[in-house]
């Protein structure tokens, strides 16, 4: 995916883990579609803090998570942090000052073909 993006953009595209993010005020937005859901629960607040730091004032973060309340593995053996709404919004609050624009719960399928609960959060780094 990064190679295709690099080809289309005509500039280098980094491939890294979220915990390797070290930019400060560099991005207008971060689209973390079905990616932060694999971060170990104990590390989510730290990753969110790094994303907050990397966003410009007013920058937006979209992230969605398979919900459930108890971390574990799916039937294919892949790890998911499976937060619930309360735990996830508390984790955002612990990671720094976010303006929560939207918290939506919905039902959808996953790569394993199983439908279940999801949580999508759109948050913004304050302008100040």
Give the structure's gist in a few sentences.
The chain has 128 residues and is an alpha+beta fold. It has three helices and six strands, in the order H-E-H-E-E-E-H-E-E.
Shape: globular
Name of the CATH architecture: 3-Layer(aba) Sandwich
Task: Say which CATH homologous superfamily is assigned.
Answer: Vaccinia Virus protein VP39
How many strands in all?
6
What is the oligomer described by this structure?
single chain
- CATH class descriptor: Alpha Beta
Helix content: 25-40%
| Major sheet: arrangement of strands | 1-2-6-5
Outline the structure in words.
By secondary structure, the protein is of the alpha+beta class. It has a single domain (30-121), classed as Rossmann fold (3-Layer(aba) Sandwich). The chain is 26% helix and 34% strand. It contains 3 helices and 6 strands, in the order H-E-H-E-E-E-H-E-E. The strands form 2 sheets. Strands 1-2-6-5 form a 4-stranded mixed beta sheet. It has a two-stranded antiparallel sheet with strand order 3-4. Helix 2 (41-54) crosses helix 3 (85-95). The radius of gyration is 15 Å and the shape is globular. The mean pLDDT is 95.
Which characteristics define this entry?
four-stranded mixed beta sheet, 128 residues, two-stranded antiparallel ribbon, Rossmann fold, 3 helices
What does the secondary structure layout of this molecule look like, with pairings?
Elements: H1 2-9, E1 27-32, H2 41-54, E2 55-66, E3 72-73, E4 79-80, H3 85-95, E5 99-109, E6 115-124
Helix pairs in contact: 2-3
């Amino acid at each position: 995916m990064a190679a295709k993006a690099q080809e289309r953009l005509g500039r280098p595209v980094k491939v890294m883990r979220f915990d390797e993010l070290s930019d400060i005020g560099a991005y207008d937005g971060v689209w973390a579609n079905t990616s932060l859901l694999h971060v170990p629960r104990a590390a989510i607040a730290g990753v969110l803090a790094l994303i907050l730091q990397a966003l410009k004032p007013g920058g937006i973060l979209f992230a969605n998570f398979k919900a459930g309340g108890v971390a574990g593995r799916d039937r294919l053996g892949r790890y998911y942090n499976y937060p619930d709404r309360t735990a996830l919004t508390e984790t955002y609050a612990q990671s720094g000052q976010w303006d929560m624009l939207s918290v939506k719960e919905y039902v959808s399928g996953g790569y394993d073909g199983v439908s279940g609960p999801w949580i999508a959060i759109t948050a913004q780094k304050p302008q100040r």
